[in-house]
Fold this sequence. Notes:
mainly alpha, three-stranded antiparallel beta sheet, two-stranded antiparallel sheet, 16 helices, globular
Amino acid sequence: MLRHAPSVPRDAARSRDHGPMESTGTRGAPGGRRTPQRTWPARRLTGPAWLDGPMTSAHLVSGAAGLLLAIGLVMVFSASAIEAALNDQPAWRPGVDQVVFACIGMVALLVALRLPAGLVRRWAPIALIGSAVLLVAVLIPGIGMQLNGSRAWIDLGFTNFQPSELAKLVFALWGAHILAVRERFLTVQTLLVPLLPVFGVLAFLLYLEPDFGGIVSLGLVLLGLLWGAGLPRRFFGWFLLVGAAGLALMIKVAPYRMERITSFLDPFADPSDTGFQAIRGFYALATGGLWGVGLGNSAMKWNLLPEAESDYIFAIIGEELGFLGCMVVVTLYGVLAYAGFRIARRSTDRFVQLASVAITVWLVGQAALNMGYVVGLLPVTGLTLPLISAGGTSLVLTLFIVGLLIRFAVSEPAAIDHQRRRERGRLARLLLPVPAAAVDPVRPRRRSRPEPAERPARRPAVPGGRTVVRVPPPGRERVRTPSRERAPSARDRRGAPERGRGADARRQPPARARTATPDSRRPR
């Protein structure tokens, strides 16, 4: 006679330390006994509680950008002092210039904090036309200034302005505005048609300078817009093929670009010419080791590494601050990327979502490309390290972009509710006003005629819907309801009881209907 195992009590089914146990019906013995197996509860990786706060996005953006700016100012002072002294200039001159541009950039950041999203969207098309005009003007010999074989700057007297930096920012904002407007009826064709032609025109103007790094950065902005808009993945493969074909065409037109690719693959093949800068960057990183040689003790900045304060400043960071200093920089860019994507995920404004993704992909992608060619993983493109490399126009515009990201962060619904509940000081209200709504409407730049105060609500258009018109059946008169009721006169009040007498009393029509002809009472 078979003996069955007793049933497990309900209280014993839960472990005090390991959670619930569930029986999976596995036979543990030939006698038919079922042995319960322990099922471990799924644990989700969660961060600290403060990471889900309403103002976390704004704090992460401002903190990461502020630390990167501080590191950049210190390293520009360190990397440019020796070269300035060798050129019979004050050693502190390049660093002070960078501090001045940082102050101008902070003013631009404060301006961006007060810009509503609707105002940015309203003027984005006009700014795109203006940036295209500047890209054309820089090609004129009397206006544009040629440096390092590229006519990409306009001399303003106190600094050199680079229109390509402005074009990338305006293209990101304009593209986000166009995609947000077309969101309800967005298809692959309407997604690609407004963006690709404008990208082609701007890229062609940058090619005429020539500025290959600017084309790559503009491509990162386009990639961020298409990715944020939800373009199918198969189209990105086609874009890679088209990009490879365009790169081959550019190499065929200008053979010197092929030398950059060959020097990337084997820089030691020509250590005195095409591979000179890459090899010196490797020496700087190798000298730094884990801890670095100390701040200000770099040997490669003694005019041994070209563009040490701009393109190859990451190599100087690795030499003076070591591998740990490089990891701090990489981590800060990672925090900036997480904050940008967090803003896009938590915002309810479609324009803010697309603009945040495009700006984040642009900044972090440019930083990855710069660090990639410094360590020898990518070919040299001439892209600078955002917020760290020396440069006036790029630093001011980058800080303006950071201000836009902070403005987008405080426009999150949870952030708006948090700021309205807490008591804020006068300075906080002045520098960072609370947005009126999470979705800022776009108002026209000029109104031709005054609009009515209230408009009747319209039913939303349904794709594939039909309009149904109700037609009264033939022979039935349409009763017109008077728009305004007339107060009964004394004659009507006296005749009301008389008309109500009798069972077969019929309601008399009004005087206008009695005098009208029979044809006028027919239904239309």
